[in-house]
Prior knowledge:
It is a single chain. By secondary structure, the chain is α/β, with parallel strands linked by helices. The protein has helices spanning about 10-15, 35-40, 55-70, 85-105, 120-130, 145-155, 165-175, 205-215, 230-235, 260-265, 290-295, 305-315, 340-360; strands spanning about 20-25, 45-50, 75-80, 135-140, 155-160, 180, 190, 220, 240-245, 270-275, 285. The strands form two sheets. An eight-stranded parallel beta sheet has the order 1-9-8-6-5-4-3-2. It has a three-stranded antiparallel beta sheet with strand order 7-11-10, with no helix packed on it. The longest helix is centred in the C-terminal third of the chain and has 20 residues, at about 340-360. Mean pLDDT is about 95; it is low at about 365-370.
Amino acid sequence: xxxxxxxxxxxxxxxxxxxxxxxxxxxxxxxxxxxxxxxxxxxxxxxxxxxxxxxxxxxxxxxxxxxxxxxxxxxxxxxxxxxxxxxxxxxxxxxxxxxxxxxxxxxxxxxxxxxxxxxxxxxxxxxxxxxxxxxxxxxxxxxxxxxxxxxxxxxxxxxxxxxxxxxxxxxxxxxxxxxxxxxxxxxxxxxxxxxxxxxxxxxxxxxxxxxxxxxxxxxxxxxxxxxxxxxxxxxxxxxxxxxxxxxxxxxxxxxxxxxxxxxxxxxxxxxxxxxxxxxxxxxxxxxxxxxxxxxxxxxxxxxxxxxxxxxxxxxxxxxxxxxxxxxxxxxxxxxxxxxxxxxxxxxxxxxxxxxxxxxxxxxxxxxxxx
Length: 370
């Protein structure tokens, strides 16, 4: 077990009531209750993403977590504004995908499922008030001030993602208790909300120290952290903790298909790109056929989250990686197959050992009785 007193910055540990400054990224569609439980058992912060589930399902998942472990829990929500229906935008997207429909023998007007990613709303706010999770995190900014005030009144510590210093300052000024510095390396949807300019997004190594200087609240590094070296680097740059996503996708607790697991096992440093093809919003994933042939970024993709609908019939007709998002960060090749509890403990132990080496202090393994 890692020595919690050895961490050079305890602000996040004390704020969230954690033993280890390791946060499991809430990956909608891939994270599971079992993953959150395993991370919590190790002493990190388990997370339950709620963007793809109903309020009732969220209640059920929290109950399962509470029955299995006594530990802090993070409920995560999206904060996007659903777009108005736009037949022209959908028509352009359908036309761009028409060759694939023809290839698979599908009618160009095949009905598509509606986009299912839900923003934080009154129903989910009542879930927070009723269940009182220790942490509530948001993506794409923060909800309306009235809803945020109710979340904080329920006792939750509030986190959100920033992809620039300006976004971090905005979050600190609007009620966040800690900010997630999401470098360009990170997998999944970019947390951007003040800018959509992907060409100017900073990487973790540049972003973390600048945010740490710009805000007084604890900073959590996200993006490119898949082993103890990344943990140590994050703390050396001024972070109080790390959020890890892609590495947890290689655990048995992750709910991803076999073809996604295979792609992760074969990942390379240059094997991902930021794409808007799958949802209409920039997100980093492993290259697949659609990204190579259409994008990865296309002005034809309709607004988030509506781009996903027209891809549904293609995925149904050809299950596999061609038309399915394979979210992953740039450090995917560093991830190894292991269980979520062991991964959490190893990230912390290896990170502490490397930090001790940087400072000249004895590492945990070399201390008497360790």
